[in-house]
Write a structure and sequence with these properties.
Layout (H helix, E strand, L loop, with lengths): L6 H32 L8 H25 L3 E7 L4 E5 L3 E2 L5 E5 L6 H5 L8 E10 L2 E9 L7 H5 L5 H8 L15 H7 L6 E6 L5 H15 L1 H7 L1 E5 L2 H7 L2 H4 L5 E5 L15 H8 L2 H12 L8 E4 L4 E4 L1 H18 L7 H23 L15 H6 L2 H9 L2 H10 L5 H10 L1 H7 L5 H6 L12 H12 L3 H20 L1 H21 L8 H8 L2 H4 L2 H7 L7 E4 L7 H10 L5 E5 L13 H8 L4 E6 L1 E2 L4 H13 L8 E2 L8 E4 L2 H19 L4 E4 L5 H11 L4 E2 L10 E4 L1 H4 L4 E7 L1 H6 L4 H9 L2 E9 L12
Parallel strand pairs: 2-4, 7-13, 7-14, 8-9, 8-12, 12-13, 15-16, 17-22, 18-20, 18-21, 19-20, 21-22
Antiparallel strand pairs: 1-2, 1-5, 3-4, 5-6, 10-11
Helix pairs in contact: 1-2, 2-23, 6-7, 7-8, 12-19, 12-21, 14-16, 18-19, 18-21, 21-27, 23-24, 27-28, 29-34, 30-31
The structure holds adenosine-5'-triphosphate (ATP).
The site of adenosine-5'-triphosphate has 23 residues, from helix 5 and helix 7.
Length: 782
C-alpha cells in the first residue's frame, strides 16, 4: 500500500467519485422530478389525496434540498479495512441501483472508525483516506496509515498524519462557520455521538470546537433519532444575532432544516430583544430568588380591598365584606395549589364564588321583602321550593354575571393578568416592588426600577416566560382555544373514516418513498402522517415551534452556556422537559460578573443527577504562539482553568505596540493597513472596550472605510469588524488587534475573562495596542 497520492491513485479514485456523482445526479433528478409532479394541480379533492400530495411535495422538496446541500464535497473519504474491504464516507448515504451501499453517511455507525481509529486502536482500519475535491475533481488524497507494522521504512517516511486537519485549519476564514465533517477528531466524535438523554455539558477552552461540535451533534441526533426529533425539532440557543448568523449555514449545509436558531432575547414569542441590562440589574434578574419574587408579585394582585367591596346592580347594592373576600381567596388559592392551575384559570372559580354570595344575599333581601316565605340560607339549596318557584335562579345568575359592577369587583379580587403587566408593576411601582421583594436588598430592589417598563431586555425574557406559566392564558385566549378545540373535535369525529383512509394513504406513500429512495428500512407511516399532516395549516416545524411558547423541543443545544443565568435555565428546561440537551461553554470565558462559578450551581437545581460532562482539550483555531500569550493572561488572572493546547505550530509572532492616548487615533489606521497586507484575503477584527468603540471605528475607517461595528447586522461581511470582546465571543477572525487591554481588564470584575476572549479570537495574527500599562501576562509581548 502506498501513501503518496500518485497521479495513478488520483485517477483511480476519480473514476469512483465520478460514478458516485453519476448516481447522485440520477437521484437528485428523480427527487426534483417527483417534487415537480407532486406540486402539479391535481383532480383529487379527497383529504387522502390532498394529504398524499402535501406529503410528497414536502418530502421531495426536503430531499432535493438535502441532496443539494450534500453536493459540495459529497465524498469525504475512504476507509480500508482488514480483509481487503473498503467503503466510502460521504455527506449523505447513497445506494446503487442494485441496493449496494455506494456511500455511507458520516453519521452512520459504520462511519465511526473514520473519526476514531488510531494506530493504537485501529478498530479494524488499515488506512483512512481523506479525499479532497474541487468541484467534482479529485485534487488530493491524504492518507493515514494505521496498520503501521505492515509498512516498510520508505512508506513510513511518507506518513501524512494530520495533513487533512492542518490544511483545513490553515485555510483563510470567510466570516461564516464551516462544517468539519471531513476532519472531526476522535474526542469530538465521542461528544457528537454521545447518547441523546440527559444534559451533556461540553467543556473546553477557546477554539476547541465546542460550537462546531455541538452543531454536528445536532445533525447526528436528527439523523440517528429521526423518529423522535422530527416531530419536536431541535433548538439551538446562541448568545446574540451576530453569532447566530455566523453559524447559520452549518446545519443547512449538513442537510438539516428542522432546527430553530434563537438567542435568549427571542425565546418569548411576541418580544424580540437584544437590549441588555446593566450588569448588576442583569445579575439580580437572573438570580433564582426571582422565582419567588414573581410568585409573590402574582399573588399580590389577588387583593382584598380594605372595608367592603361594593357591588351595585339594577336590583340593589350588595357588600362583600373582608371576611367573605378572604374566604373566597383562601378557597381559591387552596384549590389552585391542589389542582396546579395558573392564576387566570382560577378566575372562573372566583367568579362562581362571588356569584353564589351575591345570589345568597339577594335571596336574603327577598326574604325580608317577601315576608312570611320560608327562605333558605344557601342560594343553591335544592330544598328551596317556595322561593325557587318565585325566582328564576338561572336568570339571576345571568344578571349578576353580566353586571359591570361584578366584573369590577372581580378585577379587584382576582384580575386577569398578563406577564407584561405583572413585570411592569414590579419595575415601575416602588411600593409594589418593596412589598414583593423582602428577600432582596435595597440596592437590588432599586436595580429593578425602570422608567420605560416595556423596553424589554434579554434578562426580562426568562421572567416573562416564568410569569406566563404562573398566570396562564387569558380567559379570552382560553375560550378561543377551547372553541377551536371543540370544532376540531367535531371535525375529527365527522371525518373519522377519512382519517382512517389518511393512515392508509400515508402508509402507501411511506412505502413509495422507501422504494423511490432505495432505502432498505421501511419508512414509518405514522411518522409520515404526524410529520406532514398539518403542513397546510401551520407551516413548517421550525416556524411553528418558534411561535409557540409551549412548544417542547426534542433536544436543545446551548452555546456559550456559561453566560446563562439560573432563571434562563429554568426557561430552557420548560422548553425541553425531557432535559435532553447539550450545553457547551467555558467558565474561564464568562463575562457576566455574577454568573455561576460552576456547572453544578446552575444545573443541579434544574436537572439534579441528570447531567454529565464531556471535555474538549485541543485548540484548533489559534496558533501555538498566540495561545501561549492567552495562556499567560489566563494564569495571571488567577483562574483555575488551564488553556487548551494548540495543534497549530505554524504561527506568526504576536506583537504589542505602545502609544499614548493622543497618538492612538493616528496610529491605528497604519497598523490596520499593515495587518491587512499580512492577511491578504483573511478576515480581521479590532477589539476594544465599549467606551472606545466609536472613536476606534472612526480611526479604523481611515484605513478601511467599509469597517463596521457589532451593531450592524452585516458586520460578519465587513473586511474589518470593530467589536467589544463580548460581541466577539464565539466568533473568529484571521487577524485581530486588541486595543487598550488594560481598560478591558479594568472594565468589570470579569475583565480578565474578557481579555482572554479577545486574545483567543484570531486564527493567525494577533496584535495588541496599549495606551496604558500592559496587563500581567502580556508584559513580555513588548
Ligand atoms: N476537527 C476539526 N476540523 C477542522 N476545523 C475544526 C475542527 N474542530 C474545530 N475546528 C475549527 O476550529 C475553530 C474553533 O471552533 P469553535 O468556534 O467551535 O470553538 P469553540 O470551542 O466554540 O471556541 P470559543 O469558545 O472560543 O468560541 C472553528 O473554525 C472550527 O471550524
Amino acid at each position: 500500500m502506498s501513501m503518496t497520492s500518485t497521479d495513478d491513485e488520483i485517477a483511480t479514485e476519480q473514476d469512483t467519485i465520478t460514478a458516485i456523482y453519476k448516481r447522485f445526479d440520477a437521484l437528485r433528478e428523480k427527487a426534483d422530478h417527483r417534487f415537480s409532479s407532486a406540486i402539479q394541480p391535481t383532480q383529487v379533492s379527497t383529504p387522502g389525496g390532498k394529504l398524499e400530495r402535501n406529503i410528497r411535495a414536502q418530502h421531495f422538496s426536503e430531499r432535493a434540498a438535502q441532496l443539494s446541500a450534500a453536493e459540495h464535497g459529497l465524498v469525504i473519504g475512504r476507509l480500508d479495512l482488514d480483509h481487503d474491504e473498503h467503503f466510502y464516507i460521504g455527506r449523505t448515504g447513497l445506494y446503487s441501483e442494485d441496493y449496494d451501499p455506494l456511500l455511507i453517511d458520516w453519521r452512520a455507525p459504520a462511519a465511526t472508525p473514520f473519526y476514531r481509529a488510531t494506530p493504537m486502536e485501529r478498530l479494524g482500519v488499515r488506512r483512512r483516506r481523506h479525499i479532497h475535491l474541487k468541484g467534482r475533481r479529485v485534487v488530493r488524497l491524504d492518507d493515514d496509515i494505521l496498520a503501521i507494522d505492515e509498512l516498510d521504512d520508505d512508506e513510513r517516511q511518507h506518513l501524512t498524519g494530520e495533513a487533512a486537519l492542518l490544511s483545513s485549519l490553515q485555510s483563510a476564514r470567510t466570516g461564516r462557520m464551516a462544517d468539519i465533517v471531513a476532519t472531526i477528531q476522535a474526542e469530538q466524535d465521542r461528544i457528537i455521538r454521545s447518547e441523546l438523554d440527559g444534559i451533556l455539558v461540553v467543556e473546553g477552552g477557546p477554539g476547541t470546537g465546542k460550537t462546531v461540535v455541538a452543531l454536528h451533534r445536532a445533525a447526528y441526533l436528527l439523523y440517528t433519532h429521526r423518529d423522535q426529533l422530527a416531530k419536536s425539532g431541535v433548538l439551538v440557543v446562541g448568545p446574540n444575532a451576530t453569532f447566530l448568523r455566523y453559524i447559520d449555514q452549518v446545519l443547512p449545509g449538513l442537510g438539516e432544516t428542522d432546527v430553530v436558531l434563537a438567542s435568549m432575547g427571542d425565546l418569548y414569542p411576541g418580544v424580540e430583544t437584544s437590549r441588555t441590562d446593566a450588569p448588576f440589574a442583569a445579575a439580580v434578574k437572573g438570580s433564582l430568588r426571582m422565582a419567588d419574587v414573581l410568585e409573590q408579585a402574582v399573588t399580590r394582585h389577588e387583593r382584598i380591598p380594605p372595608g367592603s367591596l361594593k357591588v351595585t346592580t339594577d336590583r340593589d347594592t350588595y357588600l362583600l365584606d373582608e371576611e367573605t373576600c378572604q374566604r373566597i381567596l383562601d378557597e381559591t388559592r387552596e384549590r389552585a395549589e391542589r389542582t396546579r392551575q395558573p392564576h387566570n384559570r382560577m378566575r372562573q372559580f372566583v367568579a362562581k364564588k362571588v356569584l353564589n354570595e351575591l345570589v345568597r344575599q339577594e335571596y336574603e333581601r327577598l326574604d325580608s321583602v317577601l315576608d312570611g316565605i320560608d327562605i333558605p340560607l344557601e342560594a343553591d339549596d335544592e330544598e328551596d321550593r317556595d322561593l325557587g318557584e318565585l325566582i328564576d335562579q338561572n336568570a339571576l345568575y345571568r344578571e349578576f354575571r353580566t353586571s359591570p359592577s361584578v366584573r369590577e369587583a372581580l378585577d379587584i379580587l382576582w384580575p386577569e393578568l398578563t406577564p407584561q403587566r405583572v413585570l411592569t408593576d414590579l419595575y415601575t411601582d416602588p411600593d409594589f416592588r418593596a412589598a414583593v421583594t423582602p428577600q432582596l436588598s435595597q440596592a437590588e430592589r432599586d436595580a429593578l426600577h425602570r422608567a420605560d417598563a416595556t423596553a424589554w431586555t434579554i434578562s426580562d425574557v426568562p421572567l416573562l416566560d416564568e410569569l406566563a406559566t404562573l398566570v396562564g392564558e387569558l380567559d379570552a385566549t382560553i375560550n378561543r382555544a377551547e372553541r377551536r378545540r371543540r370544532q376540531a373535535e367535531a371535525a375529527r369525529s365527522q371525518h373519522i373514516e377519512e382519517q382512517r383512509q389518511l393512515v392508509h394513504d400515508a402508509y402507501d406513500v411511506a412505502m413509495d418513498m422507501a422504494i423511490d429512495e432505495e432505502v432498505t428500512m421501511p419508512v414509518d407511516a405514522s411518522l409520515v402522517l404526524e410529520r406532514y399532516h398539518d403542513v397546510d395549516d401551520r407551516g413548517f416545524l421550525a416556524e411553528r415551534a418558534r411561535q409557540d411558547r409551549e412548544w417542547e423541543y426534542g433536544h436543545v443545544i446551548v452555546d456559550e452556556a456559561q453566560e446563562l443565568s439560573p432563571m434562563a435555565w429554568r426557561l430552557l428546561v420548560r422548553r425541553c422537559p425531557s432535559r435532553s440537551m447539550t450545553a457547551v461553554g467555558d467558565i474561564a470565558q464568562t463575562g457576566a460578573p455574577d454568573s455561576p462559578g460552576s456547572w453544578s450551581e446552575v444545573l443541579d437545581p434544574v436537572a439534579p443527577g441528570q447531567w454529565r460532562r464531556g471535555q474538549l482539550t485541543v485548540n484548533y483555531r489559534t496558533t501555538e504562539q498566540i495561545m501561549n500569550v492567552a495562556a499567560d493572561v489566563l494564569a495571571a488572572s488567577g483562574a483555575d482553568a488551564v488553556a487548551p493546547r494548540s495543534v497549530r505550530p505554524d504561527g506568526e509572532k504576536p506583537w504589542a505596540w505602545q502609544v499614548t492616548d493622543d497618538e492612538l487615533a493616528d496610529a491605528l489606521p497604519g497598523l490596520v493597513r499593515e495587518e491587512r497586507v499580512h492577511l491578504e484575503t483573511g478576515t480581521m477584527a479590532v477589539l476594544a472596550p465599549r467606551s472606545r468603540i466609536d472613536s476606534v471605528l472612526a480611526s479604523v475607517r481611515h484605513a478601511c472605510p467599509e469597517a463596521t461595528t457589532g451593531d450592524d447586522e452585516n458586520v460578519l461581511d465587513a473586511p474589518v469588524a470593530v467589536l467589544t470582546p463580548a460581541q466577539a465571543k464565539g466568533l473568529e477572525f484571521d487577524g485581530t488587534i486588541v486595543v487598550a487591554p488594560d481598560e478591558i481588564v479594568a472594565g468589570s470584575s470579569r475583565g480578565y475573562s474578557d481579555l482572554y476572549v479577545a486574545l483567543t479570537r484570531p486564527t493567525r495574527r494577533l496584535g495588541v495596542v496599549a495606551t496604558g500599562p500592559l496587563p500581567d501576562g502580556l508584559a513580555h509581548l513588548r
